[in-house]
Specification:
mainly alpha, elongated, 81 residues
Length: 81
């Protein structure tokens, strides 16, 4: 397992990290590892929401999908006095 030293960390940032770690019930080291892991995973995914949807339905031919018939709109209910 490797280690990493971060120098010149802003005091306010360190205090915020300490508070966040306390809220999550873990050490500052664990919190920093979790933050780094999430940041790298998000960056490596590199796929936005629209791109994920596009990839999901890429194999479907939209021209072959059945289009349901429209129904007439329902009239609003008018309360009686």
């Amino acid at each position: 397992m490797s280690s990493l030293t971060i120098r010149n960390l802003d005091d306010q940032l360190k205090a915020m990290l300490r508070l966040q770690a306390a809220r999550h019930g873990c050490s500052m080291e664990q919190e920093a590892r979790d933050i780094l892991r999430r940041a790298i995973q998000l960056q490596s995914a590199g796929v936005g929401f629209a791109q994920k949807i596009n990839q999901r339905f890429a194999g479907m031919n939209a021209d072959e999908l059945p289009i349901p018939k429209r129904r007439t709109a329902r009239l609003p209910v008018i309360p009686k006095d």
